[in-house]
Amino acid sequence: MITVVLLILSVITGVFLGKHFGKKEKLAKNLLVLSAGFLITICLNEVFPQVYTSEAGSSLGIFVIAGVLLQMILEALTKGFEHGHFHHHSEHNILPVALMVGLFIHAFIEGIPLANEEHQLSPYLLGILFHNLPISFILGAFLFNRKNESKTLPYPSILIVALFALASPMGMLLGNYFNPNLQPYFLAIVGGIFLHISSVIIFESNKNHNIDWMKIGLVIVGVSLALIMHLFHHHPAAGHSH
């Protein structure tokens, strides 16, 4: 299935780039900001409209909030890995087992709504793919650029990468067993996750609160890409869910 292949490739590509260019922290930061602009636009233009035009739309706000809270809990395990809180001097503070569990749950939940997406290259899927690249970049840098570390990882790096790459496909597989009517609820939870991650990346303060024109430009590029895709994507009539 093309969706599964794309999900796995997005992780492998990001890890490969992180392994070879992982010391370029500015590149990782720029990728994150670009993906955040893309992700928050997908969230507001695609995910939330689909959620709130469903029959259960008026009661789904609590599930969006649940998604935000869930991501905050997961970040206790990943130490903010998803939005770039990764610094070489504090690598030893990130327990690989906790990181693996946190990233797996995060990606697994994102994969569940994919089971009921009508279009293979849906905006939701593209949002996940765009989001996977910078996270995988940081993951690759973290796992494969630890030459100065005295301790070895308790688990092979390739296992962590494989679990992360397979998490969303496994979530999609599980989603096939859920009632399609539950789709808006899962989308609401993921929408909360997307909203939290992207807003933290975009709105976290710059040094001395100076204007970062590069950051603003990258957000605009990410938003523009998502808007272009939104214009060319077929949307169902209002009042109907996928």
Characterization of the model:
There is one protein chain. With 242 residues, the protein is mainly α. It is built from 8 helices and no strands. The protein is globular, with a radius of gyration of 18 Å. Mean pLDDT is 82; it is low at 237-242.
| Category by helix and strand content | mainly alpha
Order of helices and strands: HHHHHHHH
Quick one: how many beta strands?
0
N- to C-terminal separation?
20 Å
Report the sheet-strand fraction. Answer: under 5%
- How many helical elements? 8
- Please, what is the average pLDDT? 82
Q: What share of the residues lie within helices?
A: 55-70%
Poorly predicted runs are: 237-242
From the alpha carbons, calculate the radius of gyration and give it in angstroms. 18 Å
Oligomer: single chain
Largest sheet: none
Report the principal-axis shape.
Answer: globular
Q: Any key phrases for this structure?
A:
242 residues, mainly alpha, 8 helices, 68% helix, disordered C terminus
What's the short version?
The chain has 242 residues and is an all-alpha fold. The chain has 8 helices and no strands.
Could you give the topology of this structure?
Blueprint: H1 2-21, H2 25-52, H3 61-78, H4 96-111, H5 123-144, H6 157-175, H7 183-203, H8 213-232
Helix pairs in contact: 1-5, 1-6, 2-5, 2-7, 2-8, 3-4, 3-7, 4-6
